[in-house]
Specification:
This protein is α/β, with parallel strands linked by helices. It folds into two domains: 3-211, Aldolase class I (TIM Barrel, Alpha-Beta Barrel); 214-295, Gcn5-related N-acetyltransferase (GNAT) (Aminopeptidase), CATH 3.40.630.30. Helix content is 31%, strand content 27%. The protein is built from ten helices and 13 strands. The protein has helices at 16-25, 48-55, 71-74, 94-103, 150-162, 180-186, 195-198, 202-211, 262-276, 286-295; strands at residues 3-6, 30-36, 61-67, 83-87, 107-112, 130-134, 168-172, 190-193, 214-219, 224-229, 232-242, 245-253, 280-283. The protein binds D-xylitol-5-phosphate and zinc ion.
């Protein structure tokens, strides 16, 4: 399943505790923490104290993105990070930064700004847990998605397959309901989203991003609607043809996908098909029974 990493750069700090709880309730996967030094990017953000305090309110995986000139110095400050991503364009030698982050016992990621050629990362990809493609100029939330960055994602995906590597591909900047399906289609594993998640209903926004990788389709030959996550079957709603009736007999969604509204989508699509084709509905499946009754 696609991982969603809300960026707390866009959080409302006066309501941080509530917002961190909403991230957990909304089943966000990671917490994306943007560290900016005012030199590498034209903005300043947070130091380790803020991350340490946030750790008291959330147990989400800490995905720390350091946009700094001197990652060898800065990375070890973030003791509570689970993964630290630094920039290829920083001033420190890449092998030294990798060594520093690994010695601190963290997973390591590398990132490229929009103007940097992603193939320059080739010598380091074998050692990487994650590669972060910036889809805006780093520094600020709320900028427009640069869709030409998806070519970098495609290249990273192909390179990983060809060379049997394991890094995750993450994208950061301008991710929302419209751009997330494009990023997933190109091959991203982790979506960072700041302003989109924190403006409005946080839980609903996370759900929308997570659903972006899921397709619900009707399969007449199998008498069912089926939900797929990037090609993998993760749910279905089956029916039996009984004369002029379709008997909705079974609805199932894989455990890890429960609570995302997928079962409702499966039933809704099947009810539409049933109506379109002029059949009557019968429901022996208890979920469908409840669904229909709730709609009345
Ligand atoms: C930008 C940061 C991003 C930022 C994304 O330099 O690295 O993580 O928070 O914000 P949105 O999702 O609003 O583009
Ligand atoms: Zn970031």
């Amino acid at each position: 399943m696609i991982k969603v990493a809300p960026s707390v750069l866009s959080a409302d700090y006066l309501n941080l505790k509530e917002q961190l709880s909403a991230l957990e309730e909304g089943k966000a996967d990671w917490l994306h923490f943007d560290v900016m030094d005012g030199h590498f990017v034209p903005n300043l953000t947070f130091g380790p104290k803020i991350l340490n305090d946030m750790c008291k309110a959330t147990s989400l995986f800490k995905d720390v993105h350091i946009m700094v000139d001197n990652p060898v110095t800065v990375a070890p400050w973030f003791e509570n990070a689970d993964l630290i991503t630094f920039h290829y364009e920083s001033n420190d030698p890449v092998p030294e930064v990798i060594k520093t982050i690994k010695q601190a016992g963290k997973k390591v990621g590398i990132s490229v700004k929009p103007k940097t050629d992603v193939t320059l990362l080739t010598p380091y990809l074998r050692e990487m847990d994650l590669v972060l493609v910036m889809s805006v100029e780093p520094g600020f939330g709320g900028q427009a998605f640069m869709s030409d960055m998806l070519d970098k994602v495609k290249w990273l995906k192909e390179y990983r397959e060809t060379n049997n590597l394991n890094y995750l591909i993450e994208i950061d900047g301008g991710i929302n309901a419209e751009t997330s399906p494009l990023a997933i289609e190109a091959g991203c594993d982790v979506l960072v989203a700041g302003s989109y998640v924190f403006k409005g209903d946080i839980k609903e926004k996370i759900r929308t991003l997570k659903l972006a990788s899921i397709r619900v389709v009707y399969e007449a030959d199998k008498c069912r609607t089926a939900a797929y996550d990037q090609g993998k079957l993760i749910g279905e709603c089956d029916y039996l043809v009984e004369g002029n009736m379709w008997n909705f007999c079974h609805t199932e969604v894989n455990e890890e996908y429960k609570g995302m509204g997928i079962a409702a989508k499966l039933v809704e699509l099947l009810l539409n098909k049933c109506e379109e084709e002029g059949h009557e509905v019968k429901a022996t499946c208890s979920y469908v029974k409840r669904y229909i009754e709730a709609g009345k």
